[in-house]
Amino acid sequence: MDPFAxxxxxxxxxxxxxxxxxxSTALEPLAEASAAALxxxxxxxxxxxxxxxxxxxxxxxxxxxxxxxxxxRELQRRYKKNPxxxxxxxxxxxxxxxxxxxxxxxxxLAQAPVIGILYTxxxxxxxxxxxxxxxxxxxxxxxxxxxxVSALFGGTMTPAVGLVFGALLVVMxxxxxxxxxxxxxQPIEGDxxxxxxxxxxxxxxxLHYLTAVFAIFVPLAAALYLTVxxxxxxxxxxxxxxxxxxxxxxxx
Length: 252
Hints:
67% helix, 252 residues, elongated
């Protein structure tokens, strides 16, 4: 079932399409054939700017979770055989600290609709019954509506597609490696919980590279959005970590 066949979502997609086409047209004197790509970058920057307060809340939540980690581990030890009581006590602890265990998910949830709309805009040949003009745009010769996987397995791979996707993937992988090194979780001495095991810490570190993996399956426009987002997130996290440093964890 096509969710955008639902009239409200179809209207939303058509409005997003009109806004993107209008912005691309306005940018054509500056970027010519890459105007739509520049429009995607500007939309990404706008979205991330609007989400700065959410990023601040996330940094505060991370600081709070790190500070509460010893108390949370003690609750897990005390009520490990009583999941309902553990959940109740955990939520009570967060309420006492005026924090939320779900605050770290807000940036991802807030951006999901934007990524979904961008993805849809660049895979459909028509929008609301009219031809999709955005598919005629490219970035340095690489079509914005083409994914790396479709180019590789569809016989449409060109040097331009390889170079553009290659450059974006390099940027994402470098940002992921810097993020892994700077924000890599360290094992807490005396904590024998599974979350503090070396294997789990390695898995957590590897998650930073998932965005680059995801980017090869989506249209170039969405991959461009993800690249700008990854770089923005890294810079923002560095700035906010200095503003909201993590305390040295101790056992409860």
